[in-house]
Every structure is written in structure tokens, then in C-alpha cells.
Write a structure and sequence with these properties.
The protein is an alpha/beta fold and 588 residues long. 18% of the residues lie in helices and 29% in strands. The chain has 10 helices and 25 strands. It has helices at residues 75-84, 110-122, 138-149, 184-193, 212-222, 227-234, 265-276, 314-337, 422-425, 430-433; strands at 6-8, 18-23, 29-35, 57-64, 88-93, 127-136, 154-160, 199-201, 254-259, 285-290, 348-352, 356-360, 369-376, 388-392, 401-406, 439-442, 450-464, 469-478, 484-494, 498-511, 516-522, 548-553, 561-567, 572-573, 577-578. Strands 13, 14, 15, 16, 17, 18, 19, 20, 21, 22 and 23 form an 11-stranded mixed beta sheet that branches. A 10-stranded mixed beta sheet has the order 2-3-5-4-6-7-9-10-11-12, sandwiched between helices. Helix 1 packs across helix 8 (314-337), helix 2 crosses helix 3 and helix 4 runs antiparallel to helix 6. The longest helix is centred in the middle third of the chain and has 24 residues, at 314-337. It is globular, with a radius of gyration of 24 Å. Mean pLDDT is 93; it is low at 44-54 and 574-588.
Length: 588
């Protein structure tokens, strides 16, 4: 029997949008909706650079591959917010998707199409020649592509939960700069979204071996393949930009909208940090960081209920829109309209999970301090929580080793099967942490809160019986009721014994009084990541994945450790390490 699938085709264009087929330089036509601006009394009389005139309005462009008219991207509703503030909103299906013509291949070729669309906008009678761009994920990448095009009309961008550096053939999500385990979830995305103009919904049988057969079955049923998937499996990376990398392009003001629980958060924060170090770019960087995942679910609403699910409930979506559009609208009012000086915007606005909003001038906050916790008593780490100990840095405890197994027939489950929506279910990971094929190290509970505000990083000394091995690290919040939920995560792949460096990303998170931090280490993370072959064989094509043993080493010559960035004076760390007072207050 053939695999069942559903073809997802374009939804109707709403009456509020005017449709156009915009010609690119090679003759390909891209489907584009224009939502007309409504009068904005704040700006109707302004003239000059960066402001409105009677001849036209500033435009906000969105270029995306997910059907511009779908409920999933909800741009009919978003456009109402932008047009009410006096912006023309322009939403376009990218090349090869839905109503647009051309080859279907994502994460490349968007530089020229971005430039040509900006050029088209500037020649419309409703345009004053000033354009900003907005959007999440892939439609954050199309913003960076437009930056690389260096069109003079582009004056500001608001990339949300995205990165400059993903592309076809990229085998892993960017989780720390070093070699990474292959990102099965990313390949699965290519195999559903980037086949042809439509998208496809189906459930591949991930128990198949070789694993590649599960997707070959899907492509045979659909009658088409995904070129992006094939490139990813082959490890052939195409250049995402046929021009300068955005870092090397003409600077424009950027509002980075980051989610602390976003699975692309490590890569997005790397963009922010890198640009903040570059002359010319540094003065144009702004950060807005919320306790959200990739799909805009909030920590304070997790797990999602039917009433709070903006994916399905219209009232919940309406409630989301202020948070979703508000920071961008305020940013554009400054940089597209000139309604206020740049100094009126906070350089950094970030939410401390379980506490509230803060503002500042830099990230991490200037009073934040790095705290090192050593992994101790590893011989207890294969037991259930609490396992081994996390102890403040200083003289290392006596070195001991602990061995744990990688069993390809009993893979460690991912926090969720869909890491883009980890807060949708916000699962209790205690059952995973209590497995005997993972390691856990736990801090004692504190009587006062511990506020994390910045990067989290682990360095582990690991060796393996296999020629290649994966290390997956999760930092969990262990509540007094025994449940354990994700704070941050990271991964690395190694092919030799020694230090394994794992970036877990940035966070703003309060570990509340009575709670404990748990560091969990595993050798698999399925189905988010491809199981390691345990050999030199291609993990996509191997029929028999091989088991292996990993050994973690500790002690003075093998300082396996966790480094946190913390705010004073919110916590007394275990063993009485008192931090100095905090000087920056919350903006709640």
C-alpha cells in the first residue's frame, strides 16, 4: 500500500489584498499581495527622509514559502495592524512556492528576488521609496538576503527566530559552531515543504532501516522529490547568498526578535553577537528576547490549552498579535517614519522567565557573572535523579569516570517530536532523565531564586568505543513536585576522545526557590536528530546502527563543567557562594 499523504494547496486571497504577479529579472513571476495603508494621523503631515509624504507611504515587505494566504502565517490579520499604523504591507510567495513560478529550492537564490521585489515596490504609486522587512524563520532569512542585495530602499529589518546561515545541504542546525549530529527534523522539513509549489503532510515511518527508505517511500507516493532534501542527505551545501554575506553588506537597523526556547536560538544569538562586534553594524543592533519557542508559544501559557492555542483559536490569535507585531511597529515608526529618535527605543528588552521584562543597553546585562559548576560524583550519574552533583568551581573533586551506553534499538527520546513547538506541550522530562542510558547531575535546591541571563555552556571530557559519537546536553528545571522541564539544550558530534564543547544557547530564566538545575547528557535525541551509525557508515543508508559505550571523565585534569551566566543577588548558590547585588531592575 502506498503511503498516505495530503497535498496542501494555496488558500484564497482575502478581499483586503490586491494581487500582483511581480516580474523578476529572469522573467519569473512571483505572487504578491498588497494591503493598502490606512491614514495614520501621527505621520500624515511629515516630510523628508524616513517619513511619509502625500505621494506615498512606507512599505513593509514579507517574503515567505508557507502560503501567504494560509491561516498558519495569519498575514491577513497581521496586515490589519500594519496598515492601521500607516504602512503598506506587501506579502509574497517566494520563488517556486504556492502561486509563484520558478524552481522549488529553498535557502538560496533569495538575494536577487529580494532586490527585484524592493525595486518593484519603489516604483508603485503608493510607495514613498522606503521599505522595511519583517517575519519569522525562513522569512527572516529572506530579510538577510535582501540586506545582502544592498538595495538602497531597505531601511530596517525585523528578523524573528531565524538565522543567516542555514541553507540547502546544511546537515545540522547551528548549535555551537563545531560539528553537529545530523538534524533529522531539518531534513524532514525539506521533505515536506520544498518538493514543489505545494506542501505535503504525511507521516514517514521512521522505524525503517535504512532510514532514507522512509522518505523514498514518500517521494514515490507523491511522484516528486525534494532537491533540498537530496542535497541535505548528500551533505552538498549551496551558497545561500550570491552576493556579500549580510555581515559584510551595508548596515541597516536590525531588531532581532529572539525566543529563548526557539530551536534556532543559538544561531540567531550568534548573528546578534557577531553584528554587535562589527563597526558600522554595532550601532544598529537591537534585541527583543521573549520566553517563546519557534512557533510563538509562551512559557507562561505552557502547555497550550485549546483556549490559548493561536494555531487554531481566533481569539487566542488576536491576543497574540499585539506581542507579535508591537515591537516591530514601534521599531519601524522610528526607522521608516522618523516619528521618534532612535534613542527612544531600548537597546535590549528581554524577559526573565517566571519573572518579567527587563530593559538594558547590552546583552548579557553588564552586572551578569559567569559561574562554573563542576560535574562531581559521576559514579551516581546513571542512576535516576538526582544522580551526580553539580558543585561550584574551585579545586576539582577527585577524578572519576562513568560510562553510559548508546543503544540504537532504544534511542533516547527528544523532548518533543516537534522541537519548533516545544512549549506547546512543555513536557515533563523526568522519565527521560531517569533512564539508565543517560547521565544526570543535579544542583542542591536554593532558598532564593537563581536568575540565568546570558549564555550557558558545557565542556565535557568524553571518549567512545565508536569512531564517531554524539553528545546531547539538556539543562532542566527540576521542580519540588519532581517534574523536570527544559531550559536550554545543545549538541555536538566528535570523532576522537577529549574535550567536547557544547553551546546550550542564551536564556533569561528564573530558577525559582526550591527548584534545582539538572544537567542531562545523552548519546541520542530521536527523532529530532538522526541516530548515529556507530561506525564509518552513512547514518542515512546504514541498515545496522552499531551500539557503543561513552565514558565521561572528571577531576582536576579533566574538568567537565557547566558554565552559567547569572544575575546577582537573586541566588545563594550551593555551598554558600553569595553573589553581589544586582543594579538593573525589571521593566514589568
Amino acid at each position: 500500500m502506498s503511503l498516505a499523504f495530503e497535498r496542501v494547496t494555496p488558500q484564497p486571497v482575502p478581499p483586503s489584498a490586491q494581487s500582483h504577479m511581480v516580474r523578476m529579472r529572469d522573467g519569473i513571476l512571483l505572487a504578491t499581495d498588497v494591503y493598502a495603508a490606512r491614514p495614520d494621523p501621527k505621520s500624515s503631515t511629515k516630510t523628508g527622509v524616513g517619513t511619509e509624504t502625500d505621494a506615498g507611504k512606507p512599505a513593509v515587505l514579507v517574503r515567505l514559502p508557507y502560503d501567504k494566504n494560509s491561516r498558519y502565517v495569519f498575514f491577513e490579520q497581521v496586515a490589519r495592524r500594519f496598515t492601521a499604523r500607516g504602512y503598506v504591507m506587501v506579502v509574497q510567495d517566494v520563488r517556486g512556492k504556492f502561486r509563484s513560478q520558478g524552481e522549488t529550492l529553498g535557502w538560496t537564490g533569495e538575494v536577487d528576488d529580494g532586490y527585484d521585489t524592493l525595486e518593484w515596490i519603489t516604483h508603485q504609486p503608493w510607495s514613498n521609496g522606503i521599505v522595511g522587512m519583517f517575519g519569522d524563520s525562513y522569512y527572516g532569512f529572506t530579510q538577510w538576503s535582501a540586506v545582502a542585495s544592498q538595495h538602497p530602499a531597505l531601511r530596517a529589518i525585523v528578523p524573528r527566530v531565524t538565522t543567516t546561515n542555514n541553507g540547502p545541504g546544511t546537515a545540522s542546525y547551528d548549535s555551537g559552531g563545531g560539528p553537529q549530529p545530523p538534524w533529522l527534523e531539518g531534513a524532514d522539513y525539506q521533505a515536506h515543504i520544498w518538493i514543489d509549489q505545494n506542501s505535503y503532510e504525511y507521516a514517514p515511518d521512521l522505524t525503517r532501516r535504512p532510514l532514507l527508505a522512509a522518505y523514498e517511500e514518500a517521494f514515490a507516493a507523491i511522484g516528486r522529490r525534494s532537491r533540498g532534501f537530496d542535497l541535505m542527505v548528500a551533505g552538498v551545501a549551496l551558497p545561500p547568498y550570491n552576493g556579500p554575506h549580510p555581515y559584510d553588506a551595508r548596515p541597516v537597523p536590525v531588531l532581532h526578535c529572539v525566543g529563548w526556547f526557539d530551536n534556532l536560538g543559538i544561531a540567531h544569538m550568534r548573528d546578534y553577537e557577531e553584528l554587535s562586534r562589527r563597526p558600522g553594524w554595532a550601532a544598529a543592533q537591537y534585541l527583543h528576547a521573549d520566553t517563546t519557542d519557534h512557533e510563538n508559544h509562551f512559557l507562561e501559557q505552557a502547555p497550550v490549552t485549546p483556549e490559548s492555542d493561536h494555531m487554531t483559536d481566533d481569539a487566542a490569535l488576536e491576543a497574540l498579535l499585539d506581542t507579535y507585531t508591537g515591537p516591530a511597529l514601534d521599531f519601524f515608526d522610528v526607522f521608516l517614519k522618523g516619528d521618534a529618535p532612535p534613542e527612544s527605543l531600548p537597546r535590549v528588552r528581554w524577559k526573565l522567565g517566571h519573572a518579567g521584562w527587563h530593559t538594558g543597553t547590552t546583552w548579557p546585562p553588564p552586572q551578569a557573572e559567569m559561574v562554573e559548576l563542576l560535574l562531581a560524583e559521576p559514579e551516581l550519574a546513571t542512576g535516576p535523579i538526582p544522580g551526580g552533583r553539580l558543585t561550584p568551581g574551585g579545586p576539582a573533586p577527585r577524578g572519576r569516570d562513568v560510562t553510559w551506553r548508546y543503544d540504537p534499538d532504544d534511542l533516547v527520546p527528544s523532548a518533543t517530536t516537534d522541537s519548533f513547538s516545544v512549549l506547546r506541550t512543555h513536557p515533563d522530562e523526568r522519565p527521560t532523565a531517569d533512564r539508565d542510558d543517560v547521565l544526570v547531575f543535579t544542583c542542591p535546591a536554593s532558598e532564593t531564586p537563581l536568575d540565568l541571563a546570558g549564555p550557558v555552556h558545557a565542556v565535557l571530557h568524553v571518549e567512545s568505543t565508536a569512531p564517531t559519537f554524539d553528545v546531547f546536553v539538556r539543562l532542566l528545571d527540576l521542580a519540588p513536585d519532581g517534574t523536570a522541564r527544559l531550559v536550554v539544550r545543545g549538541s555536538a558530534q566528535a570523532d576522537a576522545p577529549g574535550e567536547v564543547s557544547v553551546a546550550l544557547g542564551h536564556t533569561g530564566y528564573r530558577v525559582r526557590a526550591g527548584h534545582r538545575l539538572v544537567l542531562m547528557v545523552a548519546s541520542s535525541d530521536f527523532p529530532n536528530h538522526l541516530p548515529n551509525s556507530g561506525s564509518e557508515e552513512d547514518p542515512w543508508r546504514t541498515v545496522t546502527h552499531k551500539a557503543s559505550l561513552q565514558t565521561l571523565r572528571t577531576g582536576s585534569s579533566h574538568r567537565s563543567r557547566l558554565t552559567l551566566t547569572v544575575l546577582p543577588p537573586c541566588a545563594v548558590l550551593p555551598t554558600g557562594t553569595v553573589l553581589p547585588p544586582c543594579t538593573e531592575g525589571p521593566d514589568q
